[in-house]
């Protein structure tokens, strides 16, 4: 199932200047992040998950607390991506 991008997540990405980093991730990762955040039962859980996603996008090289070399900021600078 493909999740639409909720307004609150869209706004957070724009406010932090991370929309380009988010869009650079594969579709499955974008979808996983949205579903994971939205499945949180409490607002505090959703906020914690949103903040983790934003931190991972900002840092690069991490996806759901796992190493993800293809999204590393240094990888993209070296590759010219």
Kindly report the average pLDDT value.
91
Annotation field: number of helices: 5
Query: What does the largest sheet look like?
Result: 2 strands, antiparallel
| Approximate shape | globular
Domains, number: 1
Helix share bin: 55-70%
Strand content: under 5%
Distance between the termini: 29 Å
Secondary-structure element sequence? HHHHEEH
Low-confidence stretches: none
Tell me the strand order in the biggest sheet. 1-2
Structural category is mainly alpha
User: Which radius of gyration do the C-alpha atoms yield?
Assistant: 13 Å
Number-wise, the strands total 2
Description of the molecule:
- The termini are far apart.
- A two-stranded antiparallel ribbon has the order 1-2.
- The protein is mainly alpha-helical and 81 residues long.
- The chain contains five helices and two strands.
- Strand 1 and strand 2 (66-67) form a beta hairpin.
- It has one domain.
- 63% of the residues lie in helices and 5% in strands.
Describe the secondary structure blueprint for this structure.
Layout (H helix, E strand, L loop, with lengths): L6 H9 L3 H6 L2 H12 L4 H17 L2 E2 L2 E2 L5 H7 L2
Antiparallel strand pairs: 1-2
Helix pairs in contact: 3-4
Q: Top keywords for this entry?
A:
5% strand, 5 helices, 63% helix, 81 residues, mainly alpha, single chain
Question: What is the structure about, briefly put?
Answer:
With 81 residues, this protein is mainly α. The protein has helices spanning 7-15, 19-24, 27-38, 43-59, 73-79, and strands at residues 62-63, 66-67. It is globular.
């Amino acid at each position: 199932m493909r999740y639409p991008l909720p307004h609150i997540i869209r706004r957070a990405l724009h406010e932090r200047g991370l929309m380009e980093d988010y869009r650079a991730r594969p579709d499955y990762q974008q979808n996983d992040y949205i579903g994971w955040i939205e499945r949180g039962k409490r607002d505090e859980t959703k906020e914690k998950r949103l903040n983790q996603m934003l931190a991972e996008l900002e840092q690069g090289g991490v996806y759901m607390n796992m190493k993800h070399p293809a999204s590393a900021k240094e990888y993209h600078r070296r590759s010219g991506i």
